Amino acid sequence: xTRVVFLLVPHLHLLDLAGPAQVFSxxxxxxLGHTLHYAAEQEDVPTAQGxxxxxxPDLPALAADDLIIVPGWRSYTLREHGALGxxxxxxxRAHHAAGxxxxxxxxxxxxxGRAGLLDGRRCTTHHDLQDELARRYPRAAVVRDVLxxxxxxxxxxxxxxxxxxxxLQLVAVRHGPAAAARVxxxxxxxxxxxxxxxxxxxxxxxxxxxxxxxxxxxxLIDTRFCARLALTDLxxxxxxxxxxxxxxxxxxxxxxxxRYQQELRIERAEHLIGQGATVESAARSVGFxxxxxxxxxxxxxxxxAAAVARRHVRDTAGxxxx
Length: 322
Prior knowledge:
By secondary structure, the chain is α/β, with parallel strands linked by helices. It has 2 domains: 2-179, 3-Layer(aba) Sandwich (Rossmann fold), CATH 3.40.50; 206-314, Arc Repressor Mutant, subunit A, CATH 1.10.10.60. It is 48% helix and 13% strand. It contains 13 helices and 10 strands. The chain has helices at 14-29, 86-97, 109-114, 130-136, 162-175, 177-186, 202-205, 212-224, 231-238, 242-253, 257-274, 279-285, 291-318; strands at residues 2-8, 34-40, 44-46, 52-54, 67-70, 101-105, 122-123, 141-142, 148-151, 154-157. The protein has a 6-stranded mixed beta sheet with strand order 2-1-5-6-10-9. A two-stranded antiparallel sheet has the order 3-4. A two-stranded parallel ribbon has the order 7-8. The longest helix is centred in the C-terminal third of the chain and has 28 residues, at 291-318.
């Protein structure tokens, strides 16, 4: 079991807490092995929205696989909020030093900064607080106008709802994008946004259609995208012929079932490579027999993205406005 501990600071924003808590609670409901714990320096914690929360005033002992998340609080300037006690900051530092991951939402980045965990790292926070965060922690590299930043085992996100994106990303990193997509769909979240990347997750950006049969096919692919999937099996699961399924799938998503599966594999492989895996091991993990196909598909995806960027530049240059 992985423990997710939320460090509650007085006048925290409810959605900064509730969004990530709902993600990990839903993940636990799906059997992903998380338990949630709420800790604070005081037993009763007031929130910015007026309701008080009850937390454990004893900071728990943690294992390296556990996660600490610091939700943000209402503060027009970071310095307006009273500093956390030395024991709490030591607890944050010790967990990270022992191999654990620490994360923050919105102003919660200031708690990580006080603990010295932002020094020499990329980080972000709510757009209203970015300049002050950069002034308070000049050794940090504050990245502006992004949803979240993952720098090793220090993860920071922007304000309020971006905590959901951060939590879904952490689920995707630990359990794969299919697990994150299942959690997102359970929460009725439209998309799992990817940090400073503009595109949504491949698992969700092709879900805006209203075809039940295609959704059923996608559900099957989402859960088994690393395995060999025959078109006959997909068709049987949807009650359609192979030809009809392919036609409807392409009309609904813009992709064939095979191309959709390949996109999921590429995205998962990119996650693994970003976490230090080799291309060869990532390719095997997502179902390719060797790395050659993965390299070809990544090259094709890069070429397609470059072509789209060139068209955008050309179209923009040609649009002189009224």
